[in-house]
Amino acid sequence: MVVHIQDEQEVANFKYFWQRWGRWIFAILVILSLAYLGYVLYQSHLRSNDEKAAVIFETFVTQAGANNMAESKKALIQLQEKYPETMNTTQATLMMAGSAFDDGKYDEAIRHLQWVKARQHDDLLQTIVAQRLASVYLQQSKYNEALQALDVKVTDAFKPVLLETKGDVLQAQKKNAEAVAIYQQALNLLSKDSVQREFIQLKISSLS
After folding, report:
1. Model pTM?
2. Does residue 40 lie within any of the structural domains?
3. Residue 106 pLDDT grade (very low, low, confident, very high; cuts 50, 70, 90)
């Protein structure tokens, strides 16, 4: 009899709890389920975009390899318009910037690099873009623009690349003492076994 009364009490307590909190628990479960579904769909969308971008990227590379730049540029435009956030598009744009630089089309190279800079914000890509932009400006003897391009915030792991390039710009301006100081800053951030140390040390030696 005692057990029966306890069972009835537990049922009554459960009913009270569910009446008071049940709808909120249900709402939370629905929200969590929708969030998970949204995540799954988003990841599927990203994979789909990556796959579609990869097909166009292959066309871009094939046409560029065949020196058919008109078709290669069409593929790049398609990538940029439809799949701007994918790494295939970033890679294609950087490749086109390099091609433009090799052909002496510096303004075109800058436009491509600025396009990547505006869309990819991780430190590695920001460092690559900054270094290449500075190199293009340096080729044009636009020293102030080159130094401004290098003024990006990245972690210490990537700073030596930017500092070395800044030293190159200062050296081109005949500011040798300043260049040596900047090269030394780069050396201070590099590990003892870094290959980059040897190249920077050679630059310092040539200015001493």
Report:
1. 0.74
2. no
3. very high
